TrEMBL record:
This is Entericidin. It holds the Pfam family Entericidin. One of its GO terms (cellular component) is membrane. The keyword Transmembrane helix does not apply. Belongs to the EcnA/EcnB lipoprotein family. The lineage of its organism: Bacteria, Pseudomonadati, Pseudomonadota, Gammaproteobacteria, Lysobacterales. Residues 1-20 form the signal peptide. Keywords: Cell membrane, Lipoprotein, Membrane, Palmitate, Signal. One of its GO terms (biological process) is response to toxic substance. Transmembrane segments: none annotated.
Length: 45
């Protein structure tokens, strides 16, 4: 029983970490796009 609980907890932790990585990567892309827009506006494009 303890092994099953440990396996479930490890699985949940792993899924949380993987989804967090995707979220952070997506946020980074959004920030990069916003920075590019500001840069283009500053250059007058």
């Amino acid at each position: 029983m303890k092994r099953l609980v440990a396996l479930v907890l490890v699985s949940m932790f792993s899924m949380a970490m993987l989804s967090a990585c995707n979220t952070v990567a997506g946020a980074g892309k959004d920030v990069q796009k916003a920075g590019e827009k500001v840069e283009d506006a500053a250059k007058g494009h």
